[in-house]
Design goal:
Blueprint lengths: L16 E3 L6 E6 L9 H12 L4 E5 L4 H11 L6 E6 L7 H11 L22 H10 L2 E4 L16 H11 L5 E3 L2 E3 L25 H4 L1 H13 L15 H9 L17 H10 L4
Parallel strand pairs: 2-3, 2-4, 4-5
Antiparallel strand pairs: 1-3, 6-7
Helix pairs in contact: 1-5, 2-4, 7-8
């Protein structure tokens, strides 16, 4: 079975990941559906379950553009990685999990947009198309354990560290092995040299694309981020039909934090502080 050394300087991109066995056939991607100052314990446990069970890299993905670009760069720098385990909860708005799946399924178009993705800004503007093509050939399967947004049941496969461990171990087997409908085993390294590529220009938003700079879409994106810190009760006491509708109006300046009665309660003090920070109110 062919195994090779990764590129010198591997992994080329920094991020929220742990480096494990360089000769492993699998990496683990955990969707980060919160801000990095409030990472839930269960997501950290998924990352550690991946690396402890033998993944080459195990880390978090937060955005549908630069985050995915970093994953592509790090994976093509190590031809031994042939599988990707996707787990955690999907992040509403950014939809990085969906974007990653669509990238594998459809690739990118001439504008560097991920074909088929419904995320806000799924543009891979900072890496050459050849890297995306190599990624899609090198990774033979994405094992999709992703949960729906807001899932809290840690016994569901995408939030259960034991299932992540089983997925990684299945990819290590010498003979074809069944895991949750996927047939996986260690097929050896991709038979081309590793590619070392670093993102030269890191754009927080791909400004060259009109879709990404329309004011309405920007407010919608902020509203989706604000929604994560609202009570999620859809109680209508604020006068809006849903917490999401309130969040979008909050982003537009049509309502204030005091219009949500829950945000004045002590148990939501941290949420209120996070919302004020996002709204530049402190």
């Amino acid at each position: 079975m062919l195994k090779v050394s990764p590129a010198e300087g591997y992994p080329p991109e920094e991020g929220r990941y742990v480096r494990g066995n360089d000769y492993s056939p699998v990496a683990v991607c955990v969707i980060l559906d919160t801000f990095d100052f409030a990472i839930p314990k269960e997501l950290n446990e998924l990352v550690m379950a991946g690396v402890d069970s033998g993944a080459a890299l195990s880390g978090m993905l937060q955005t549908e553009n630069i985050g995915i670009e970093k994953i592509v760069c790090n994976i093509v720098a190590n031809p031994n990685i042939r599988y990707l385990v996707l787990c955690g909860r999907e992040s509403a708005g950014h939809l990085p999990g969906e974007a990653l799946l669509m990238l594998k399924q459809n690739g990118i178009d001439e504008t560097r947009r991920i074909v088929g993705s419904t995320a806000l800004t799924p543009f891979l503007s900072n890496i050459p198309a050849e890297l995306v093509q190599r990624f899609n050939i090198q990774i033979v399967t994405i094992i999709n354990l992703l949960c729906k947004p807001g899932e809290t049941d840690t016994t569901t496969p995408g939030l259960d560290p034991r299932m992540v461990q089983q997925a990684v171990r299945a990819c290590y087997q010498e003979e074809p092995t069944q895991f949750m409908g996927y047939t996986v085993y260690d097929i050896g390294a991709y038979p081309e040299p590793p590619i070392y590529h670093r993102i030269a220009t890191k754009l927080e938003q791909p400004q060259a694309h009109p879709e990404a700079t329309q004011p309405g879409k920007a407010k919608m994106g902020l509203g989706l981020m604000l929604h994560k810190f609202l009570p999620q009760t859809d109680c209508r006491r604020c006068g809006k039909r849903t917490c999401l509708a309130f969040a979008i109006d909050l982003a537009k300046g049509k309502v204030g934090l005091d219009d949500c009665p829950y945000l004045s309660e002590p148990e939501f003090a941290e949420n209120r502080r996070a919302l004020k920070k996002l709204l530049d109110l402190e």
